[in-house]
Amino acid sequence: MASLDFLCRRFRKNTALAGDLIGRAADEDPQAVVADYCNETFVDYADALSAGLADLAERVEQLRLTLRRVTDAIIDDLSARTIAP
């Protein structure tokens, strides 16, 4: 869902760029408008990447705990079979 929100936000900003270029072209340098847009885009993508990596780290930690729990259960089971007559 977060990726869909990100894509919708990027789409809105991309469509707003055309309006900004037309509206601000008379007052400012169009290259400055595009540079501002690129800076915002880089920050936006960096924020999305950071959030994605944080989510990935949380999922990896959950997987690690699950694997640890399963491994402990297997070892306990094997040791119980080995020790029991």
Task: Please tell me about this protein's structure.
It is a single chain. The protein is mainly alpha-helical and 85 residues long. It is built from two helices and no strands. It has helices at 2-25, 30-83. It is rod-shaped, with a radius of gyration of 26 Å. The termini are far apart. The mean pLDDT is 84.
Give a topology summary.
Blueprint (H helix, E strand, L loop, with lengths): L1 H24 L4 H54 L2
Distance between the termini: 54 Å
Helix count? 2
Q: Helix/strand/pairing class, anyone? A: mainly alpha
Succession of helices and strands: HH
- Beta-strand residue percentage: under 5%
User: The biggest beta sheet, please?
Assistant: none
Based on Cα principal axes, name the global outline.
rod-shaped
Report Rg: 26 Å
Total strand count, please? 0
Average pLDDT taken over every residue? 84
Unreliable segments of 5+ consecutive residues: none
Helix content: over 70%
